[in-house]
Amino acid sequence: MLLTVRKALPIAALVGLVLTLSGCERAPASSPAAPAEGPVVAGQAETPAAADGETPQAAVAEAADAAAEPAPAVAAEPAGNTAPRVIAYYFHRTLRCATCLLIEEQSREALELSHGEELDSGRLAWHAVNIEVPGNEHFEQEYGVEAAALVLVEMIGEQVTRWEILPEVWDLVEHPHELQEYVTMEAALFLGG
Predict the structure, then answer these.
(1) Backbone dihedral region of 112: left (phi > 0), alpha (psi from -120 to 50 degrees) or beta?
(2) pLDDT by residue (tens digit) across 20-47?
(3) What is the pTM of this model?
């Protein structure tokens, strides 16, 4: 059946079909074509390797179970604390393509390299969140995300004061240095107020 589909559809259409069926969508901008690799399950940078004696299917199932955890609760601020803090959310779905995983990895590394001090102090936090896990659905409506997205959220106490989706990560994923500069600059702007 797959052979028949491949002959009938151009490769680009087949890749688009696979991404659509997997729940992974490219940003609606003029993004380059997605890699021809299939969807990957879970929130890891690559398909999990099977441990000795473990089947590849078991490794993927274990990774899927890990991805089924609800988003971590944001720690409550002490009463009277009005210092803003920034949360970098990477929202994704359960089935993920290589591009989605690469954007997450490059974005997280950019923040760790450029804003390690803020991460250590809690002024900046990183959370990868599967929006398909029960309890996380509200993020789609709150931030208008439909596909994998990097969103910076500023909070004072428990109140969200502003947020911004960083859409250019999709266009820059094949240029890691530029993606790092973009994420670093946007985070610095948010941290600066």
Answers:
(1) alpha
(2) 555 555 543 433 333 333 333 333 333 3
(3) 0.63
